[in-house]
Write a structure and sequence with these properties.
Elements lengths: L1 H25 L5 E4 L2 E4 L15 E5 L7 E2 L8 E5 L17 H7 L1 H9 L4 E2 H8 L3 H13 L3 E6 L2 E6 L1 H8 L5
Parallel strand pairs: 3-5
Antiparallel strand pairs: 1-2, 4-5, 6-8, 7-8
Helix pairs in contact: 2-3, 3-4, 3-5, 4-5
């Protein structure tokens, strides 16, 4: 569950940095559509939630299935609970996205998992959780991938954020993402 949450958080942060608020909202899923200035959400009942200048708190939920959930009381702070993706369209199975089989054969399953998880940007701790290894092990693997020109690592406060280089993206996508 933590890995799904961490991956979603990294994806949202990267979308916000790359494409602004609109880009981040547009990527929330097929049941949520950003049609500026309206966030349209598939919901069991037809209703409008007016923010009246208040912010909207987005809460990813591992257990929320189907449609998002919003707080019904208009006097409470606006909150939208949305479902985390449980299935990756590239690999056709539930759970955390797995790396391509050919990539695993080339660089090993753990490094392949770390490389794939870095596609949206992830910290060392997030990579460790996603790959199911210790932080020290994740650090060793990211060092090898960085020294091979596949990852770019940048310190951000107490954390290190890892992202793919163009060579890393090419290697990851070489088998059509499978």
């Amino acid at each position: 569950m933590q890995a799904h949450h961490d991956a979603d958080r990294s994806l949202r942060a990267r979308a916000l940095l790359d494409d602004g608020t609109g880009g981040m909202l547009a990527g929330l899923g097929p049941c949520i559509r950003w049609l500026r200035p309206i966030l349209e959400v598939d919901y069991p009942v037809d209703r409008d939630l007016h923010l009246r200048g208040r912010g909207l708190t987005l809460v990813p939920s591992y257990f929320c299935q189907g449609t998002p959930v919003a707080l019904a009381d208009p006097d409470l702070p606006p909150v939208l609970v949305y479902p985390l993706r449980h299935q990756d369209p590239d690999d056709g199975h539930t759970g955390a996205p797995g790396p391509p089989a050919r990539l695993c054969a080339l660089i090993g399953a753990t490094r392949a998992a770390i490389l794939r998880a870095s596609a949206t940007g992830a910290t060392t701790g997030e990579l460790a959780r996603l790959a199911g290894v210790s932080a020290a092990s994740a650090t060793r693997h990211t060092t090898v991938l960085r020294n091979s020109g596949l990852l770019l690592s940048r310190r951000h406060g107490p954390s290190v954020l890892h992202t793919l280089t163009p060579a890393g993206t090419t290697l990851l996508n070489a088998d059509g993402g499978r």
